[in-house]
Specification:
This protein has three domains: 31 residues; 66 residues, no CATH class; 40 residues. Helix content is 72%, strand content 0%. The chain contains eight helices and no strands. It starts with a helix and ends with a helix. This is Ribosomal protein L7/L12 C-terminal domain-containing protein. One of its GO terms (molecular function) is structural constituent of ribosome. Keywords: Membrane, Transmembrane, Transmembrane helix. It comes from Catellatospora chokoriensis.
Length: 159
């Protein structure tokens, strides 16, 4: 009977020690896959960017943040960060992030990219909107500028 109690106590201690070791590994700050530090830094960068506006060295900091996220194989957060900081479409953000991951530097760092709308295009889109055909106006803007749906809709709504 005493041997049985000792065996139960040893098994319980082994389980407790195993749980403690597993918990410690999960909270290891050097773990790159589950790093809370990278997420915190990215969130801090986003909140700082929204509050203060883009300073001169913002582009370099943004590229650095995206590189850090890509080094940690966190492509989706990198694309989200790039989109929030620059205001570009999803496809442009993916292209920029992939360029950064390959070692390049995109030309659109820190600044929203909106193709120039010519006066003829603006007049045509405004006419379509006034005729009650906003969808056609959005299609026209997208076709001639390469803008995303949201950006083109915002342009047409502003006319």
């Amino acid at each position: 009977m005493t041997g049985f109690l000792i065996a139960v106590i040893v098994v319980l201690l082994a389980i407790i020690i195993g749980l403690l070791v597993a918990r410690r590994r999960r909270h290891d700050p050097t773990d790159l896959l589950g790093s809370a530090l990278a997420a915190r830094d990215a969130e801090h960068a986003r909140s700082t960017r929204k509050a203060a506006g883009p300073p001169a060295a913002e582009g370099d900091a943004l590229v650095h943040q995206v590189r850090l996220l890509m080094n940690q194989r966190m492509k989706i957060p990198a694309v989200k960060l790039w989109r929030e900081a620059t205001g570009v479409s999803l496809s442009d953000a993916v292209k920029a992030v992939e360029l950064i991951a390959a070692g390049g530097t995109p030309t659109t760092t820190g600044q929203p990219v909106h193709p120039v709308l010519g006066p003829d295009l603006m007049a045509n889109a405004r006419d379509l909107k006034q005729q009650g055909r906003p969808i056609e106006a959005i299609k026209l803007v997208r076709q001639h500028t390469g803008m995303g749906l949201r950006e083109a809709k915002d342009v047409v709504d502003a006319l």
